[in-house]
Specification:
about 280 residues, mainly alpha, Helix Hairpins, NTP_PyrPHydrolase_MazG, NTP-PPase_MazG-like_N, NTP-PPase_MazG-like_C, ATP diphosphatase activity
Length: about 280
């Protein structure tokens, strides 16, 4: 009797994970629509990789917002917008004879298989941390053969938000053993950098020096966060969201009293802030 989970002929994955025909047709329809838009829509026809690259970043942030809101209908819609941009860039590249969407998919498929030897090969399965370390080791071995990417850190985009970029740079360095042996030493570094920043402020050092020292402090805090399983980008975003909600609550309460936030005294603002914080908690 045939094994229902056996891999389809010539495939590395199990048959239960194969996409049904109707889903493949839905993808094919979307790809065809994007190609027709490039031919028939004046706006779509004029776009280039450069002209729409910022929109892809915007759509990615809207995906994050949907996740933060726990709105799954919104998430499905925003993921569709990201998929549209992937298709759009692939179609532009195909028109220029550079690559096709099939090239993109095949390259990603090959990469996923190579970097998961514990799933598609004979390597032993470790815990999540071991898998992440293995991924970085395999990636670095691949990069060693590429002259233009000689550094472990070359794969971290400079365009990432600053906190996220710092985290990814530190993760890459840690992946090859360049990190503090434990979180206590990482915290010592935070305290050292805090002292240097306070000294730069107290001594009225130049703005450039104060900025450098503050940057060092932030970098050290991001590094310590890694040891505590905190994602700095998410943490600061959530804190900013909380501040925004509470500040707007204070504004609303004052408006209900017939005054504005710039007319209230500090004692009243602090009382309303404590009230807003208590109601939220």
């Amino acid at each position: 009797m045939p094994d229902p989970d056996a891999s389809p002929a010539g495939k590395i994955y199990e048959s239960q994970f194969a996409e049904p025909a109707e889903r493949l047709e839905a993808y094919a329809d979307l790809a065809a629509i994007v190609k027709q838009l490039r031919r028939d829509c004046p706006w779509d026809r004029e776009q280039t990789h450069e002209s729409v690259k910022h929109l892809l970043i915007e759509e990615a942030y809207e995906v994050v917002a949907a996740i933060d809101h726990g709105d799954w209908d919104e998430l499905a819609e925003e993921l569709g917008d990201v998929l549209l941009h992937v298709l759009f860039h692939a179609v532009i590249a195909e028109e220029g004879g550079r690559f096709t969407l099939a090239d993109v998919i095949e390259a990603e498929t090959d990469k996923l298989v190579r970097r998961h030897p514990h799933v598609f090969g004979d390597a032993a399965t470790g815990d999540a941390d071991a898998v992440a370390a293995s991924w970085e080791e395999i990636k670095q071995r691949e990069k060693n053969g590429e002259a233009e990417e000689a550094s472990v850190l070359d794969g971290v985009p400079a365009q990432l938000p600053a906190l996220l970029r710092a985290q990814r740079v530190q993760e890459k360095a840690a992946g090859v053993g360049f990190e503090f042996p434990d979180r206590d030493e990482a915290w010592d570094k935070v305290q050292e950098e805090l002292g240097e920043f306070r000294e730069a402020v107290a001594d009225d050092r130049s703005p450039e020096r104060r900025q450098d020292e503050f940057g060092d402090l932030l970098f050290a805090l991001v590094n310590y966060a890694r040891y505590t399983d905190v994602t700095p980008e998410n943490a600061l975003r959530e804190t900013t969201d909380r501040f925004t909600r509470r500040f707007q609550d204070v504004e609303s309460r004052l408006s209900g009293q017939g005054t504005s936030i710039d007319e209230a005294d500090l004692a009243e603002l602090r009382r309303l802030w404590r009230d807003a914080k208590t109601r939220e908690e």
